[in-house]
Design goal:
Rossmann fold, globular, two-stranded parallel sheet, about 425 residues, 10 helices, alpha/beta, single chain
């Protein structure tokens, strides 16, 4: 029965891809629904970094283990060798006993988890948190020129800014084939932590599971030919994210400093899909584009997502017409680029409009798929305000969102689907 389901999905998607090949443009989705009353207030950007100094958990590595010609990102991101061997950051860890890791056993369902069904998948975790202004630990320099701020080494304990405070958590899910310490993600972790969040970020190591994309028609045909792996890539991610929360909330170094009732999420690209699945969304599984729920982690109170992946017109992420989102009550902010052809805003708008709970969609004019530096303050001001409102329950942040139209300076941001959260009179 499960083999049959994959066969029919293959045939159905191939027909859809052939008829719609090349149609994944970012046009549309930029206009608000008719009759929508939009807010008008332009707000000042939040400063980056925020008021707190930041430190992170141990991810020390032995870079001498790299073979000639290898890139360290290949290990952080799970890239395979030419011979097909899956690399991962665990191959480089200098202090594995002092590095946070989780092991997730994939459910024994080949339709959803492909060749990984019933197998264990390890994920390394990094945690970044507000620390004391005088934290003496040095930054940990990476070969890429980036640095992990005030990183713990050996069995050192975290140094929190206020040992008596219980901080909100932020589940951070990077985009496809990225890692928490690749590119701009290092800064993103630090900025959220500088505003008072304990940020929990797995190294998803996507390419260990699937190394195909779905950016255009040619990629779609490749995805279809490796469908079970591409499905497993997406369905394993929310399970790893939940396991990371389990680990940190129960860890003796962190549990007494965390507020388990205030858990938010931030996702970029496929990370936005990951957190939506974590919040109970139905995932596309059949040729008729029906969907099934992968998991539901009720600890997750709200999500902000940048260029979130909601699928392509020929393969929506959450079922036909995104119907897998109909019963989802997870508060969700999407920030999408109008020129994004990988995560088209038209698909995001269709999905956000279906959510049963608090939601908002903000567009960034002319932004393609990737981090837009000009929009940095827009992205983080919107995200932090939404998370403060819905994960922390800050009434002033909710009031701000109800009238917030854009962020001063930066890119060209504007509301497409306005915030519908509860605002006190």
């Amino acid at each position: 029965m499960k083999t049959y389901a994959h066969g029919t999905l293959y045939a159905g998607l191939l027909g859809i891809a052939l008829s719609l090949g090349g149609c994944g443009g970012g046009g549309g989705g930029n206009d608000s629904p008719p009759g929508t009353v939009l807010p008008t207030t332009v707000v000042a950007a939040l400063p980056l970094p925020g008021p707190n100094t930041v430190a992170c958990s141990n991810v020390a590595q032995d870079f001498s283990r790299l073979s000639p010609g290898e890139q360290v990102k290949d290990y952080w991101e799970g890239a395979r060798t030419d011979g097909g061997r899956a690399r991962y950051i665990t191959d480089l860890l200098a202090a594995p006993a002092d590095t946070l890791t989780v092991t997730v056993r994939a459910p024994n369902d080949r339709n959803l988890y492909g060749s990984f069904a019933g197998k264990d998948v390890v994920s390394v975790i990094i945690v970044c948190y507000p620390t004391t202004t005088g934290n003496p630990r040095p930054d940990y320099l990476l070969p890429t020129g980036q640095a992990v701020p005030h990183m713990q080494t050996g069995a050192e304990l975290p140094l929190f800014a206020n040992a008596a405070t219980r901080y909100p958590l932020l589940a951070f899910s990077h985009g496809y084939a990225g890692s928490p310490i690749s590119d701009d993600y290092v800064a993103a972790l630090s900025w959220f932590a500088s505003w008072g969040y304990v940020v929990v970020a797995p190294f998803h190591g996507d390419a260990r599971i699937s190394d195909v994309r779905i950016d255009d028609f040619n990629d779609a045909v490749k995805v279809i030919s490796h469908l079970s792996d591409f499905t497993a890539l997406q369905t394993m991610r929310p399970l790893a994210m939940s396991a990371a929360l389990d680990l940190v909330l129960d860890h003796p170094q962190f549990r007494d400093h965390l507020n388990a009732a205030q858990v938010g999420g931030f996702g970029a690209s496929m990370g936005g899909e990951t957190l939506m699945l974590m919040g109970g969304a139905g995932f596309t599984v059949t040729a008729g584009l029906s969907s099934t729920q992968i998991t539901l982690d009720r600890r997750l109170k709200a999500v902000a997502a940048y260029i979130p992946y909601f699928g392509e017109p020929f393969l929506p992420a959450f079922g036909r017409d995104q119907r897998g989102l109909d019963a989802v009550t997870l508060p969700y902010l999407a920030i999408s680029g109008t020129a994004d052809t990988t995560a088209p805003i038209v698909m995001t708008q269709q999905g956000i409009a279906r959510l049963a709970g608090t939601r908002e969609l903000v567009s960034l004019a002319g932004v393609k798929h990737g981090f837009d530096k000009a929009s940095t303050n827009d992205i983080f001001t919107w995200s932090l305000t939404f998370l403060d409102a819905e994960a922390r329950g800050d009434a002033s942040a909710r009031q701000k969102l109800s009238t917030m139209a854009s962020v001063a300076g930066g890119g060209d941001d504007r509301v497409v689907i306005p915030y519908n959260g509860t605002v006190a009179d």
